[in-house]
């Protein structure tokens, strides 16, 4: 590999990935070139790689969860310097559409996705406005999980949790465990439900007030007992299942809110008695992606130690073994899977 070349894990079409060498990106005048330290695998990456997302174009380089250091800057960039530790927001929002103007950049009408500049390569290159500095004391592994934490932070902020309220987190994967930690930081008492006992052990270690395997115990009865027959003030469903949404809605307390956090594929329909929602004054909502404010808040959670993302990492693969990483996520082995691209502390 020459000095002006970089490695990328190139996906020519679904279910095919290979190591290629391409020219290193030349940053435009407002862009920052980042040398990737770690790149985390999102379930979306696996779904896209498997050809299960019709909106994903190929060929491409996947990955939107990245940490690294500044390698070069454009001539108009003045907030970053070479070697600085950073996290990028890999989706470039237009900033001028109605959604962006309303502070809903996560619903930008004209987003630009990094089709050929994804994080599974030595470098990424993005506008200065998409780059967030991180402290020298912040672990690059922990920081690589900023983007999914930003999505979680958005959902929990929309919940408007009050201290002492009870929140049920359905699913104790990496996303569910981040929901649990953010909810706890807002003062909630958290129940974590998952059919995998090893994940419940992790949830308890990381601060869950109660854990339950719903295949072995009665979850609705547990909620009634804990809440003095009131119900769960907040419920977040982190697993893509319409049936789980249907099953958990009746567990809400009067005036409670439920967030459908995970996308449901293949698409499905909910079958709910509307009177339950009417008389319970329930709010059924969703949340997707994140804004720059959410990214900033997520980094604050990581850097303050309130949310421990590095403890969620169960597997680290070298860049060349990305396919093994995809397979590990697909089989739901362990928790968060990341790729060491150029490494660092």
Short description, anyone?
By secondary structure, the protein is α/β, with parallel strands linked by helices. The protein folds into 2 domains: 5-145 and 309-340, Medium-chain alcohol dehydrogenases, catalytic domain (Quinone Oxidoreductase, Chain A, domain 1); 151-286, Rossmann fold (3-Layer(aba) Sandwich), CATH 3.40.50.
Structural features, described:
The protein has 2 domains: 173 residues, Medium-chain alcohol dehydrogenases, catalytic domain (Quinone Oxidoreductase, Chain A, domain 1), CATH 3.90.180; 136 residues, Rossmann fold (3-Layer(aba) Sandwich). Strand 14, helix 9 and strand 15 form a beta-alpha-beta unit. Helix 1 packs across helix 11 and helix 4 packs across helix 10. By secondary structure, the protein is an alpha/beta fold. Strands 3, 4, 5, 8, 9, 16 and 17 form a 7-stranded mixed beta sheet that branches. Strands 12-11-10-13-14-15 form a 6-stranded parallel beta sheet, with helices on both faces. The relative contact order is 0.16. It contains 11 helices and 17 strands.
């Amino acid at each position: 590999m020459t000095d002006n070349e970089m490695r990328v894990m190139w996906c020519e079409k679904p279910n095919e990935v290979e190591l290629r060498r391409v020219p290193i990106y030349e940053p435009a005048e407002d862009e920052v070139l980042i040398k990737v330290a770690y790149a985390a695998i999102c379930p979306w990456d696996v779904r896209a790689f498997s050809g299960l997302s019709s909106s994903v174009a190929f060929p491409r380089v996947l990955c939107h969860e990245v940490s690294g250091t500044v390698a070069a800057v454009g001539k108009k960039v003045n907030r970053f310097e070479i070697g600085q530790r950073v996290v990028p927001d890999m989706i470039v929002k237009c900033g001028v559409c109605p959604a962006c103007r309303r502070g809903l950049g996560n619903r930008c009408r004209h987003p630009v996705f990094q089709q050929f500049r994804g994080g599974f390569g030595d470098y990424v290159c993005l506008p200065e406005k998409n780059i967030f500095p991180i402290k020298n004391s912040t672990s690059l592994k922990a920081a690589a999980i900023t983007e999914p934490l930003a999505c979680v932070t958005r959902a929990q902020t929309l919940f408007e949790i009050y201290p002492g309220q009870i929140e049920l987190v359905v699913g104790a994967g990496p996303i569910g465990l981040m929901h649990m930690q953010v909810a706890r930081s807002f003062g909630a008492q958290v129940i974590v439900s998952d059919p995998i006992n090893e994940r419940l052990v992790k949830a308890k270690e990381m601060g869950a007030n109660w854990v339950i395997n719903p295949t072995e115990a009665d979850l609705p009865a547990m909620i009634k007992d804990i809440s003095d027959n009131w119900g769960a003030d907040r419920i977040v469903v982190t697993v893509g299942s319409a049936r789980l949404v249907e099953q958990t809605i009746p567990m809400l307390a009067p005036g409670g809110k439920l967030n459908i956090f995970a996308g449901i594929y293949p698409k499905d329909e909910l079958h709910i008695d509307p009177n339950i929602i009417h008389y319970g004054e329930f709010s059924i909502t969703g949340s997707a992606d994140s804004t720059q404010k959410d990214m900033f808040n997520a980094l604050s959670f990581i850097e303050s130690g309130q949310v421990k993302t590095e403890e969620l990492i169960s597997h680290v693969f070298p860049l060349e073994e990305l396919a093994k990483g995809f397979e590990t996520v697909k089989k739901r082995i362990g928790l968060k899977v990341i790729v060491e691209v150029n490494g660092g502390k």
